[in-house]
User: Fold this.
Amino acid sequence: MLDKKVSMTAPSGAGLSADEIRGALGGALAGAKGRVLLVVPDHTRFHSNAGFIANFIYHELEPRGRVDLLEALGTHVPMTREQCAAMYGDVPFERFIAHDWRADTERLGEVPGDFVREASEGVMDAPIAVEVNRLLTGSGYDLILSVGQVVPHEVAGMANHTKNIFVGCGGADMINSSHMLGAFYGMERIMGRDRTPVRMVFDYAAERFLAHLPLYYVLTVTTAPAGDIVTHGLYAGHGRGCFEEAVAEAQRRNITLLDAPIRKAVVYLDESEFHSTWLGNKAIYRTRMAMADGGELVVLAPGVRRFGEDAAVDALIRKYGYCGRGNVLHLFREHDDLRANMSAAAHLIHGSSEGRFSVTYCTRHLSAAEVTAAGFAHMPYDEAAALYQPGGEGYFYIPNPALGLWADRARFGG
Assistant:
């Protein structure tokens, strides 16, 4: 177990140093030994600083036993050897275990429908099965450390903590139901907040089904100006307290409130990180509360080459497109394939601007026909990249939407 709680907040914009992080975690892990499982994010969370932290923990604890790393993928594709090396350094690739949300889980119980109804203010009332990767409960690990970044999130409100377990390492029902719950309740009522209906479902499940596990969380709050990771906070512990500290710091560091809406925004998606609109639509989620009615959002997406991370989800996005909440709910009632994959239906709702502002995807690998069929306008990437650069005039430029939330102060509502 962790010998002590970690709570570190950098006093300035410079962030915590590598030595400060190593010192805090080394002290907390002084008594840890035996078999250790690190639950880690994939390369799409590169700027979480989880790579540096997991690498340090691996080398600190491997001499005292054995350390494995479980990729909290949700429905994402497993990391390649090259991606693991880029993010996690010299941790052996053979120690990484890819979570399969369809085949690797066991059922622990369920969140009852009555609780779901109360938490969601009547939006949903079906019970939700609680399933997690079998390694978490049945493999005899002496210590489980879930590592990741707390940042505004479109489904849970704030990312990480128990979401890393129940979605990142979870099964189909929790993944589907949590996404649909967030979509039904309303993304703009959720993002940047802690006590959301989805988070309440995670909390219920954690209190009843995870409390007996040697599970601890190592949470970061980061930004990445000019692509360089700055760790503003590091919080580690067993319960909810470390998450609440991280939420408070992330709300300070990762939410930008604007005094007026944005008429035109340009969002860049790093091609090493964003390969699908499933991930790239963070450009829409994280800016939608900042966009003016009738505004224009331009998404520079050089690495996007598909719609879904999962082949079945990709097919559904291509079939139905980002056609707006009302249309998706109608399609959901009429089509079995959407009802069988609620997370895809929720994603189609999340990815639509509801006609309030335009979205232009600028791609190299998806054709204009593919992009427009999915419901977006299209511009070739090279043409768009020549027009839009950081610091250009006439638009608001965002270099990485995954690291923040931008909102008109009036629309965010305090």
About this structure: The CA atoms of residues 28 and 332 lie 48 Å apart. The domain at 6-255 is CATH 3.40.50.11440 (Rossmann fold).
